[in-house]
TrEMBL record:
<dbReference type="InterPro" id="IPR022744">
    <property type="entry name" value="MeTrfase_dom_put"/>
</dbReference>
<dbReference type="Pfam" id="PF12147">
    <property type="entry name" value="Methyltransf_20"/>
</dbReference>
<protein>
    <recommendedName>
        <fullName>Methyltransferase domain-containing protein</fullName>
    </recommendedName>
</protein>
<dbReference type="InterPro" id="IPR029063">
    <property type="entry name" value="SAM-dependent_MTases_sf"/>
</dbReference>
<feature type="domain" description="Methyltransferase">
    <location>
        <begin position="57"/>
        <end position="176"/>
    </location>
</feature>
Length: 228
């Protein structure tokens, strides 16, 4: 296992500007919460991506992975778990440690690399290569619209042909979801599925498939900046 902390640092530079997400994660433990309903949709999307992955390694990249609540138990329970090679990037060391503890408890330490670092900085994932599953959950509601557009465009370079991107965003007005769909289409993705419109307005999840070969890029600019 590579110790990426030496490469990307511990994210201290932006830690001072970040909010404390502890309470946000607590909502996962309340089955009646909107976040718990979102979790089920994301889980289903991950299972679908694993089920449909061709034989061989399944490469998963998760930017701003948090405690890994949506990905780790699903991978652990899936018949393809031994095919998974994953990189989770989370800037908050305490939150990343929770993810590491869960991965260890689930026996996933060898296959899931949890990096403490800035997921907006390509240095944290440049060596990982195109992903078969790219997770952008809990990001688009916390960055500017321009950064959402930029991140979607850059996702095209991070996702293998035939790979899936799963993303989340609330649908509060002004609802950015239709624009995000347009940006994914422009970046070469097709819509695979989307969450039920009857879910709370704070919940929207979609899965898109990359229909092109990812263009190699040397772009070292940051993808986004959290503003919330
Ligand atoms: C809304 S939570 C989402 C967590 C997880 N993706 C989920 O859906 O359960 C946002 C997470 O992003 C992390 N975060 C914020 N800015 C980040 C950055 N630049 N790089 C990596 N993680 C970041 C926060 O510490 C927090 O854990």
């Amino acid at each position: 296992m590579i110790d990426h902390s030496a490469i990307v640092g511990q994210g201290d530079g932006i830690m001072a500007e970040l909010r404390d997400w502890t309470q946000w994660f607590a909502a996962y433990d309340d089955p009646s919460s909107a976040l718990a309903s979102r979790l089920l949709v994301v889980n289903d999307g991950i299972v679908r991506a694993l089920n449909e992955a061709p034989p061989g390694a399944i490469r998963i990249l998760y930017l701003c992975a948090g405690q890994g609540r949506d990905i780790l138990p699903v991978v652990a329970a899936h018949p393809r778990r031994t095919d998974v090679v994953a990189r989770l990037v989370e800037v908050d060391p305490a939150i990343a440690d929770v993810a590491r503890g869960t991965a260890a408890n689930l026996g996933l330490t060898e296959s899931i690399d949890i990096v403490t670092g800035d997921a907006a900085d390509p240095a944290t994932f440049a060596d990982f290569g195109p992903a078969d599953l790219l997770l952008l959950c809990g990001i688009f509601g916390n960055i500017s619209d321009a950064d959402v557009a930029n991140t979607v465009a850059r996702a095209a370079g991070l996702t293998a042909r035939g790979g899936t991107v799963i993303w989340t965003r609330h649908r509060h007005e002004p609802n950015l979801v239709p624009s995000i769909h347009d940006w994914f289409a422009q970046a070469g993705f097709s819509l695979l599925w989307e969450s039920d419109a009857a879910l709370p307005e704070s919940v929207y999840v979609a899965g898109h498939r990359q229909e092109r070969d990812p263009a190699p890029t040397q772009n070292t600019d940051k993808l986004f900046t959290f503003v919330k």
